[in-house]
Amino acid sequence: MKSENMSRRMILKSGLVACAGICSLEAIAKGAEEVKKAIEAKKEIPVGLQLWTVRTECAKDFPGTIAKVAKMGYKGVEFAGFFNYSAKDVRKMLDDNGLLCSGSHTAIDLLTNEKLAATMEFNKTIGNKFVIVPWLDRKQLNTKADWLAKAKTFNELADKTRNEGVRIGYHSHQGDFLPIDGETPWDILFGNTSKEVFMQLDTGNCMQGGGDPVAILKKYPGRSLSIHLKEFSATKKKVLIGEGDVKWKEIFEVCETTGGTQWYIIEEESGEYPPLEAAEQSLKNYKKLRNQA
Questions:
Q1: CA distance linking residue 279 with residue 93, whole number of Å
Q2: Contact, 282 vs 241, CB < 8 A?
Q3: % helix / strand / coil in the chain, to the nearest 5?
Q4: What's residue 106's pLDDT?
Q5: How many Cβ atoms are within 10 Å of 236's Cβ, its own excluded?
Q6: 24 backbone dihedrals φ, ψ, rounded to 5°
Q7: Residue by residue, what is the 3-state secondary structure of 168-192?
Q8: Can you tell me the distance from the alpha carbon of 74 to that of 46, in angstroms, rounded to the nearest whole number?
Q9: pLDDT of res. 89
Q10: What is the pLDDT of residue 43?
């Protein structure tokens, strides 16, 4: 995902328009509850799809796209906006298709004091435990001091949401691994935030910025509650997961031992295939990597 992408900003900022008047949390429907129990029984890390992968399809037919993703075999979806659907409607889409919410990319201005309560209620209604800030305005983050101030903001958000059953995280971009004042923004942020603030490392974005995702996962044990599985290749522009340079075996090993990972999230942006086809093929490639094909 590109941090300066205005389309994503517009979607995220409009995504919670329907927050007002949300009813209290409904009981988990049978389909999603069965998925949850199956995951827990197998002790496997489930795989979700970041819906930014199929954003064009979501804009045209949100419920229909959710249904297609479920049929591919994904266990959950991570949202990148809600296209003006209410929390109750989104929850019904998930329940009707036996899906869980694996996270929601949420603009940081929706987590301000006046909007935080509505945002938390929306996410609790759809069954989401992971609220991830997907980008930050780089024009306001030019020095280490700027990033330290942002770390303070994340700590404050984590304190406010601690009792809500919702965790606050930040999603990585290429620029997070380009040094500022001799230190990377990623290390400044996560070296100065509490363990309540989790990191959503994007493997492809990390490598594109010159970072080592395996080393970063090891450096911050227990903080990778979810991770974006995105391929990177130094020689090819269009590659799906398993077709490039990411050391997947080592990634999975760290996630499943010290990382604390609860969700693998596939995000595909290479343009190798049409979006829905890319989402389906990416899941097939993942299963091959895990000898699940």
A1: 19
A2: yes
A3: 50, 15, 40
A4: 98
A5: 13
A6: -65, 160
A7: EEEECCHHHHCCECCECHHHHHHCC
A8: 8
A9: 98
A10: 67
The number of beta carbons lying within 10 Å of the beta carbon of residue 88 is: 15
| Length of the chain in terms of residues written | 293
pLDDT under 50: residue ranges of the chain = 2-6, 17-28, 293
pLDDT tens per residue, range 235-277: 998 999 999 999 999 999 999 999 999 999 999 999 989 999 9
Specify whether the CB–CB gap between 49 and 265 falls below 8 A.
Answer: yes
Long-range contacts of 215-220 (CB under 8 A, 24+ apart): 216/186, 217/251, 217/254, 217/255, 217/258, 217/259, 218/254, 218/258, 220/190
Other beta carbons within 10 angstroms of residue 293's beta carbon come to 9
Sorted by where each begins, the domain ranges of the chain are 40-289
Do the beta carbons of residue 69 and residue 268 sit within 8 Å? no
Strands (DSSP E) found in the chain? 47-50, 76-79, 100-105, 130-133, 167-171, 197-200, 226-229, 263-266
End-to-end CA distance of the chain: 28
What single-letter amino acid sits at 157? L
The tokens describing 171, both together, are: 């999603």
Is residue 243 a contact partner of residue 231, using CB atoms and an 8 Å limit? Answer: yes
Task: List C-alpha distances in Å: 247 to 208, 231, 253, 275, 286.
Answer: 14, 10, 10, 24, 13
Dihedral over alpha carbons 221, 140, 9, 208 (to 10 degrees): -50
**Measured distance CA(230)–CA(285) in Å, rounded:** 12
List, in sequence order, every residue forming a beta bridge with 198; answer none if it has no partner: 169
Give the CATH fold of the 40-289 domain.
Answer: TIM Barrel (3.20.20)
pLDDT, position 7: 55
